[in-house]
Design goal:
The chain is α/β, with parallel strands linked by helices. It has 2 domains: about 60 residues, Orthogonal Bundle (Chemotaxis Receptor Methyltransferase Cher, domain 1); about 190 residues, 3-Layer(aba) Sandwich (Rossmann fold). Helix content is about 40%, strand content about 20%. The chain binds S-adenosylmethionine. S-adenosylmethionine binds next to loops.
């Protein structure tokens, strides 16, 4: 590989697409970029660099390739079951306002699953206010998330009765999340590498299947950003294949190691 030419592509990605490449794993970036090059039948980084500089369409395609938005309603059933049966009721016993952040929410299935769960866990009654902050770096994914419209296939993990209760069928056969769930979710664009949280006083942060592409250093940095944004005893939920780095594990206590749920360490503990 011509390293200089590859570095030029990374610089173009930073300036034109706004993704900070230094914080992503190099082999991940290389695989994604090469896949786009193959699509364009190119084998030189220099040639591909010129294409991204000149083509807004290719910038868009590369952004999509780099920010893989794969997600699902109720992705990893066990972790959601645990949040519903243990985590939310525990928070509810001590608080009237519950604040949750779905960090790296892609097209919205995760925050809407949380909203649905809060309804079913009866967390909202009586007098409990739930806000779900949902953010992603990818504007296109957020646009879709905000509409709350999905194909039938995206709902395959949901029972018929859940679909009837929480979605409106559209004329074209797609399904839109009903307002009683949409009203709970606030979407915004946010870069997890910005060094700040989207908001503070959070009771739960879900950041799942996002840091798999980050360098170890950036992953640890994120755990350091999340800790002060959580309330005491607040929960940090990682993806199934993600893990807490050695340098930051003193900030959290494991709550359920299998489901990758951690709890912010209590002061003096
Ligand atoms: C595979 S999806 C995960 C969606 C959801 N959390 C889940 O587990 O189903 C990864 C998401 O992370 C987002 N992402 C990647 N880098 C990011 C960054 N620096 N800041 C915010 N979001 C980022 C991508 O745009 C993508 O939507």
């Amino acid at each position: 590989m011509d390293t200089r030419e590859f570095q030029s592509v990374l610089r173009t990605i930073e300036s034109k697409i706004g993704i900070q490449c230094a914080n992503y794993k190099a082999d991940y970036l290389q695989r994604r970029i090469q896949s786009r090059m193959r699509m364009n039948e190119m084998d030189s980084y220099t040639e591909y660099n010129s294409l991204i500089i000149s083509s807004a369409k290719e910038q868009e395609a590369l952004r999509n390739a780099l920010t893989i938005n794969v997600t699902k309603f109720w992705r990893d059933q066990e972790v959601f079951d645990l949040i519903k049966s243990e985590v939310l009721p525990e928070i509810r016993r001590r608080k009237q306002k519950i604040r949750i952040w779905s960090a790296g929410c892609a097209t919205g299935e995760e925050p809407y699953t949380l909203a649905l769960m809060c309804h079913e866990a009866k967390v909202l009654y009586p007098d409990v206010q739930v806000t779900i902050f949902a953010s992603d770096i990818d504007r296109e994914a957020l646009k879709k998330a905000e509409t709350g419209i999905y194909h039938r296939k995206a709902l395959e993990n949901l029972s018929e009765s859940r679909i009837r209760r929480h979605f409106d069928k559209q004329q074209d056969g797609s399904y839109q999340v009903k307002d009683h769930l949409r009203d709970l979710v606030k979407f915004s664009r946010h870069d997890l590498m910005s060094g700040r949280a989207v908001t503070q006083y959070l009771d739960v942060i879900l950041c799942r299947n996002v840091t798999i592409y980050f360098t170890e250093k950036q992953k640890d940095e994120l755990a350091r950003v999340f800790a002060p944004a959580l309330t005491e005893g607040g929960y940090y939920v990682m993806g199934k294949t993600e893990y807490m780095g050695r340098d930051v594990e003193q900030l959290y206590d494991p709550y359920n190691s299998i489901q990758k749920i951690y709890q912010k360490k209590k002061r003096g503990a």
